[in-house]
Write a structure and sequence with these properties.
The structure is a single chain. The longest helix has 27 residues. The chain is built from twelve helices and no strands. The protein is globular and about 50 Å long.
Length: 283
């Protein structure tokens, strides 16, 4: 029970990080928000790890996969933070929720897995949800919406590489190394986008990173107490606080198209998860 509770709390914290990122992107360049997310988050996570999990800190065995995985999450973060700087939090997150569907498609080519008719139906259902949100031909599709969608697609690749690492490197080492890769990359890029920031911006960037660190820390802790396969669908709880933050701080409520698309995308993702569990139980 504790694992479920920690996992849900962790996921429901993360939209508050996104909300601060959206607020800051109005006053400073969104790339500076990405910098704050990685720079402060890396050192916060490293500090927590040394205090609570020092014995688990080892050099990763699959350094090449760690580098690729860290790069993929870095690109995902840039795309998603850009998208929420333009469109609403619920719309961006709903489009990014396509990642479990894309994982199913990628597993055919990368993991050489066989996908049956039921999962193909789920894939097309999720794709229909995306079309309902974007409504091509009725709405002008902006780059922010495409960025959110690309974030979900690249995050699916990130999940594939995470699955590969789960057999060799501990989740804690993977989390720290991911932060390290992102910090190095954004430090190289940020001088080209830097604008003046004040103490309030720095404090909010630190708070953003703290919320993200605590959220990921709780998710990792939950994975130590419970089975990852049973906890996986709880990530969809993120949409609850996402809608709350969007309405409370930005006065935005999703329209009927976003709700419809959300139901289709989340339903297809959960159905794919259920089919995966049945497949595993048959072995």
């Amino acid at each position: 029970m504790k694992a479920y509770l920690l996992n849900i709390i962790g996921w429901m914290l993360l939209p508050f990080m996104d909300g601060i990122a959206k607020y800051l992107s109005v006053e400073i360049h969104f790339m500076q928000v990405v910098w704050g997310r990685y720079f402060f988050m890396f050192f916060i996570t490293l500090t927590i790890s040394f205090i609570f999990f020092r014995k688990y800190l080892k050099w990763p065995l699959n350094i090449n996969i760690q580098l690729v995985r860290g790069f993929l999450l870095f690109i995902t973060t840039i795309l998603f933070f850009y998208s929420i700087s333009v469109i609403s939090l619920p719309e961006a997150l709903t489009l990014a929720f396509i990642s479990p569907i894309v994982v199913t498609l990628l597993s055919i080519f990368i993991l050489k897995e066989r996908v049956g008719i039921h999962r193909w139906i789920a894939v097309f259902t999720g794709f229909l949800g995306v079309l309902i949100i974007l409504r091509p031909g009725f709405n002008e599709i902006n780059f922010a919406s495409i960025s959110a969608l690309l974030a979900g697609i690249i995050y699916a690749l990130f999940l594939i590489y995470t699955r590969k690492l789960s057999f060799t490197d501990s989740p804690l080492v993977t989390l720290i190394f991911t932060g390290f890769v992102g910090t190095i990359l954004i430090t190289i890029i940020i001088p080209f986008y830097w604008t003046d920031i004040n103490l309030n911006h720095l404090l909010l960037l630190f708070l953003l990173a703290m919320i993200g660190s605590v959220g990921h820390f709780l998710i990792i802790l939950s994975l130590k107490l419970g089975e990852a396969s049973k906890l996986a669908p709880l990530g969809y709880f993120e949409i609850i606080t996402n809608i709350f933050v969007g309405f409370s701080f930005f006065g935005y409520l999703p329209d009927v198209y976003i709700y419809t698309g959300l139901i289709l995308i989340v339903s297809s993702g959960i159905y794919i998860f259920i089919r995966e569990q049945k497949k595993i139980s048959n072995y």
